[in-house]
Specification:
Elements lengths: L2 H27 L4 H6 L1 E4 L5 E5 L3 E6 L3 E4 L7 E6 L4 E7 L12 E7 L2 E8 L2 E6 L8 E7 H5 L1 H10 L1 E2 L2
Antiparallel strand pairs: 1-2, 2-3, 3-11, 4-5, 5-6, 6-10, 7-8, 8-9, 9-10
Keywords: Membrane, Transmembrane, Transmembrane helix
Length: 167
């Protein structure tokens, strides 16, 4: 084996180890379900700054740079996150979706959007949104409390207005 071949082989091995290390890091931190994430469909809308994200549980109209990441499930329902480009908005849809109105540390107000009841819970810089099961929903939907949810509150409210749930 000559020197050039050895360098190429070592480079390939190091690159493979780097990719493997990144994969392990991602799995340990956010535990992505790759097959469900790759099943997510992104469709254009009339507004070029927005797109439709079609998941297993709903269709969401979001800003064009948002992406859906599905986490590996440890309970019934759908668990994932919406990557905004500047942070993650984690969500859970199903019977096990947490309800922040039960938590005394949060102040909760109830509002309606397009005849959907929505509970808005706040604690300092954190905002959480919860839609109890209603209409065509098969469980509750919670956008977890985070500063990213607070920064994108108006966008989340717009998403909820146009959201269509799968049956």
């Amino acid at each position: 084996m000559n020197r050039r071949t050895r360098k190429i082989l070592i480079s390939i091995i190091l690159f493979g180890l780097f990719i493997f290390a990144v994969h392990i890091l991602v799995q340990l931190t956010i535990d992505i379900n790759y097959s469900a994430t790759l099943e997510t469909k992104y469709n254009k809308t009339i507004d070029t700054e927005r797109h439709l994200i079609e998941t297993r549980w709903a269709t969401l109209e979001t800003p064009d740079n948002w992406r859906n990441l599905v986490h590996s499930q440890t309970c019934p329902g759908y668990v994932g996150g919406l990557w905004t480009g500047k942070g993650m908005i984690d969500y859970e849809y199903g019977y096990m979706a947490p309800v922040y109105s039960d938590n005394q540390d949060f102040t909760t107000v109830t509002d309606t959007i397009n005849d959907l009841i929505i509970e808005i819970s706040r604690k300092g810089k954190l905002t959480a949104l919860h839609l109890p099961q209603q209409k065509e929903m098969t469980g509750g939907l919670t956008f977890y409390a985070s500063e990213t949810s607070t920064r994108n509150f108006n966008t989340l409210m717009e998403i909820i207005q146009t959201m269509k749930f799968e049956k």
